Amino acid sequence: MDKQTQQEMINELEGSDRDVRGFWAFTTIAVAVFLSLYHFYIAGFGLPGIGSKTFLIFHLTLGLVLVFLIFPPKKGLNQKTVPWYDALLAIMSFGVGMYIIQNQTSSSIISGRPTDFDLAIGLALIILVLEATRRVVGKPLVIIALIFIGYFFLGEYMPGQFFHNRGDFERFVYEISYRNNGIFGTPIYASAQFVFIFILFGAILESTGAGQMFINLAIRAFGRFKGGPAKASVLASGMMGSISGSSTANAVTTGTFTIPLMKRVGFKPHVAGGIEVAASSSGQFLPPIMGAAAFIMVEFTGIPYYQIIQSAIIPALLAYVGILFMVHFEASKNGIQGIPKAELPKGRKLLLQQGYLLFPIFVLLYYLVVERISVNNSAFFSIVVLLAMAFFAHRFKESLGRSLLYAAGLIAIVFGFQFIVGTLNSGLYQLNGLFGTDVFGTETVRWKPEMTMLVILGLVVALVFAVFQRKSKLGATPFRYSWRNVVEGFETASRNALSIIVACATAGILIGVITTSGLSTKFTRIVVGFSETLTNMLPSFMVTDNTQLYFTLVLTVFACLLLGLGLPTTATYVVLAAIVAPILTDMGVHVLIAHLFVLYYGVLADDTPPINLPAYATAGIANAGPVRTGVQGFKFDSAALLLPFVFTLNPTILFLTDASWYEVIFAIITATVGMIAFASFIQNWLIHKYAWYERIIALLSALLFIQNNWVTDVAGIVLLAILLALQLIKGKYQQSKEQTA
C-alpha cells in the first residue's frame, strides 16, 4: 500500500471521501499549508503583532474553513468537487472569524452587552463548530455537547443538585462565543499553542520516511523472536504513536507493513489487526510527546512538561510491557515463531542510511528537558534541524561538491537574514500608509540568531552520515527529500490537526456550560456522594482507608470509557480533563495522577468496540471483521487495565514521592510482575494452558500487586511462585506422558 493509498484510507475512515481536483484542490492545499506555516512561524518567532486571542480565533477559523472544504456532510457521496453549500459554509466560517477578530475589543463585547448582530454571529460560530465536529469527529461528541447545552437551558426543571436558574440565551451565546471560558478557552488554546506544532513535527518526520525506518528497526530488534513481527509492531507503533496525534493514522502507517508479516508467521487476521490497534493507541500515552496530550496537560495542570514526562514514562513502558507479554503468550500457545534471521533488515545499514532521522527527536528532548525552553521553540528548533538534514542527506551522497556549495549558500542566507529584518519590517510598515491599512506592524517579520546554528547542525549531521555511507560503500538514504515532500508534510499536518481543532472547540462549549451553570462542583459532589453511599453499604470488616477511593476510581473508569467512545484520543483527554479529573482531585488524588489516570482510560476508550476507528483501519488491512478486530485490540490493551489503579495507589512509580531509589525499583518490579500475572490471566497461559484454579491464582496475584503494601506484595509473589511451580510440574508431567507414549 503506497503513501497516497494510506492517506486516502485514513481520510475515509476519519470521515472524508471527497476527492477534489483543479481549483478546489489547489485552494485546499493552499489553506492547509498556510495554516501550518502560520503555526510554524509563531512557534519560532512569537505572535507577529497580534494578540493571543486573535491567534486562537484565526487558528479555529482556518480549521473550520478546511473542514468544510475537505469533509462532506456524510460519507459515501464520493464528491469530486466542493458543492456550493460547503463553499458557502467555508466563506461563512471565515467571515464569522474575521468579525470576531475585528470586534473582540468593541464596547458591546467588552461591557458584556452584545448587540443582536453580535449574538447572531456568536450563534453562527457555535453551529459551525458543532457541524464541523459532527463531520470530522462524529456524532458522539456532538450529542454530548447538545446534552450539556440542553442542561444549560433546562436547568430550572432539573431535580436536586442538578437545579440551576442561569439558562439565559444571551448569556449562553456571549459566554460560549466571546469569553475565554467557552470556545476560546483552555482546550483551543492548548490546540493552537502546543498541539499543532507537534502534529506538524510528526507529519514532517513521517514525510521523510521515518515511519518505515522505525518499522525496520523494530523488525531488526524483535523479528527473530517468538511472534517476532507482532512484537516488532508493538515497538514500531509505540515509537510512531508517541509523535502522532491520531491512533488511526498510526495504525494505518505501521499496520500496512506489520499486519501482513504477522499473518505470514501464523497470527490470525483479526488477532494481527487487534495487536496493531492496541500498540497504535497506547502510543498516545508514551513520552516524549504522548500524542500531544502532555502539552495540553501542562495547560490544565500548570505542571512543567519535564515533570509530566518524568512521571508518565514508567507507566507508559509498563503498558507496552503488558502488550508485549500478551503477544508472547499468544504466540506461545499457538506455536508461532519469528522471521528467519536471513530475512531481517541489516541494522548497521539501516542506521547508516537513515539513522540521522532519530537526531531531531534527541534535539527536541534536549531543548525540552535539559534547556527547558518553551514547548513551541523546542518543536520549532527540531523541525528546522530535521528539514536541513532531510534536504541534504541524500544530496551530499549524490554530489558532495555541488551540495556543499548549496549548503554554504543556505548558511549565508540564514546568517545574513538577521541584518535585513529591520529594513524589511520598515518597508512593510510603510505599506500601511500606502494602502490605508494597519496590517503590518514594526515586528511583522522576526528572526532568531539560533537559526544559523540549527541549520549548520542539521547540515553537519547529514554530511557525517553521507561520509560514513561513502566509506562503508553503502547507497544513500532510500528517500530523496524534496520541496514536494515539504508541502505534503505541511498539508498533512493541517489535515491531521482538524479533528483536534474542532474537538477542542466543542470541548470549550462543554467547559463553558459546566462553568456557567456551576455543574462542575455538583458533578463532583454527586460522584463522591455515590461512592460514599456504596462504601457505607459494605460490612465494616471490608472497609479500608481507600475503599471510597476504589469506588470513585471504578466509577471514573466507566465515565472515561463512555465519554471517550468514538473520539480522537487527544480530544477525549480534553473532555475528561475538564469533567472527570476534578472528581479525583477533590478526593485528594494528586492533580498529575488524576490527569494521567483519565488519559490512560481515555486512550483505552479508543480501543473499545463498537466505535473503534483504529480497528476499522487495521481490519481493512488484515481482511478481518472490524468488531472482532476491535475486541482483540481491547483484549491486548487490557493487560494494563489495572495499571492506573497501581500508580494512583502507589505514586512511587511516578516519581512523586520521597521514596529511596531501591523503593522505586521494588515498586517498578512489583508493578511489572503484576502486569505479567494479569496478562497471563487474560490469555489463560503462562508456560502452559491454565487449569481453572491456576487462572484464579493468576488473577488474585495480579490484584494483590495493586495495593502499595509489603504484605500484599509478598502474598502476590508467593502466589505467583506457587503458580509457576504448578506450571513447571505440569510441563514435566506432559513431557513424561509424551515420552511414554
TrEMBL record:
<dbReference type="InterPro" id="IPR011853">
    <property type="entry name" value="TRAP_DctM-Dct_fused"/>
</dbReference>
<protein>
    <submittedName>
        <fullName>TRAP transporter fused permease subunit</fullName>
    </submittedName>
</protein>
<feature type="transmembrane region" description="Helical">
    <location>
        <begin position="405"/>
        <end position="431"/>
    </location>
</feature>
<keyword id="KW-0812">Transmembrane</keyword>
<feature type="transmembrane region" description="Helical">
    <location>
        <begin position="350"/>
        <end position="369"/>
    </location>
</feature>
<feature type="transmembrane region" description="Helical">
    <location>
        <begin position="639"/>
        <end position="657"/>
    </location>
</feature>
<feature type="transmembrane region" description="Helical">
    <location>
        <begin position="549"/>
        <end position="567"/>
    </location>
</feature>
<feature type="transmembrane region" description="Helical">
    <location>
        <begin position="83"/>
        <end position="101"/>
    </location>
</feature>
<feature type="transmembrane region" description="Helical">
    <location>
        <begin position="451"/>
        <end position="468"/>
    </location>
</feature>
<dbReference type="Pfam" id="PF06808">
    <property type="entry name" value="DctM"/>
</dbReference>
<feature type="transmembrane region" description="Helical">
    <location>
        <begin position="54"/>
        <end position="71"/>
    </location>
</feature>
<keyword id="KW-0472">Membrane</keyword>
<feature type="transmembrane region" description="Helical">
    <location>
        <begin position="710"/>
        <end position="729"/>
    </location>
</feature>
<feature type="transmembrane region" description="Helical">
    <location>
        <begin position="183"/>
        <end position="205"/>
    </location>
</feature>
<feature type="domain" description="TRAP C4-dicarboxylate transport system permease DctM subunit">
    <location>
        <begin position="459"/>
        <end position="656"/>
    </location>
</feature>
<feature type="transmembrane region" description="Helical">
    <location>
        <begin position="664"/>
        <end position="686"/>
    </location>
</feature>
<feature type="transmembrane region" description="Helical">
    <location>
        <begin position="574"/>
        <end position="603"/>
    </location>
</feature>
<feature type="transmembrane region" description="Helical">
    <location>
        <begin position="375"/>
        <end position="393"/>
    </location>
</feature>
<feature type="domain" description="TRAP C4-dicarboxylate transport system permease DctM subunit">
    <location>
        <begin position="126"/>
        <end position="424"/>
    </location>
</feature>
<feature type="transmembrane region" description="Helical">
    <location>
        <begin position="497"/>
        <end position="519"/>
    </location>
</feature>
<feature type="transmembrane region" description="Helical">
    <location>
        <begin position="285"/>
        <end position="306"/>
    </location>
</feature>
<feature type="transmembrane region" description="Helical">
    <location>
        <begin position="21"/>
        <end position="42"/>
    </location>
</feature>
<feature type="transmembrane region" description="Helical">
    <location>
        <begin position="312"/>
        <end position="329"/>
    </location>
</feature>
<dbReference type="InterPro" id="IPR010656">
    <property type="entry name" value="DctM"/>
</dbReference>
<feature type="transmembrane region" description="Helical">
    <location>
        <begin position="142"/>
        <end position="163"/>
    </location>
</feature>
<keyword id="KW-1133">Transmembrane helix</keyword>
